[in-house]
Amino acid sequence: MTATTKHIFLDKQHPAVWRALNGLGLKVKEAAQEVGMEPKTVELLHVRISQLNGCAYCLDVHVRDAVQAGESPQRLAVLSAWRDTALFTEKERAALALAESITTLPGHSSQEQEEAYAREHLTEEEFSVVSWLVIAMNAFNRVSITSHHPVRKER
């Protein structure tokens, strides 16, 4: 690898900034816990956001975390097609719709529809927490994608 093709791990290059992002992630998880959001729902959102962004590293981490939090392999397997199944609750569907809207930033009318759907099923606190979860996870995805964080083979 030459100097121009060597990957720069942003988290190693500026560890104070990385710690600040991790601090945000921890505060968002605390807020999710305060509004009663289950850890498996938080991880379900992390997985879906990472799927949309194509972040292999974060998918590796958060699929394992989701399973540890009690998420089923079946629901993880069909997560990318969640709209076509009856495996998710209305609240989860609202959170997933909002997560997709914030991640993909669709056109204005689509975004308004997804937000309205989310507002029907989520409290204001839940809407805010889901939004912050998505914002933070998108930042983590971008750090890992830009840094080319490797997925290590399990032993």
From TrEMBL:
> Which terms does the record give in the GO molecular function aspect?
peroxiredoxin activity
Segments forming domain Carboxymuconolactone decarboxylase-like: 26-100
Species source reads Pseudarthrobacter oxydans
Entry protein name: AhpD family alkylhydroperoxidase
NCBIfam families the record matches:
ahpD_dom
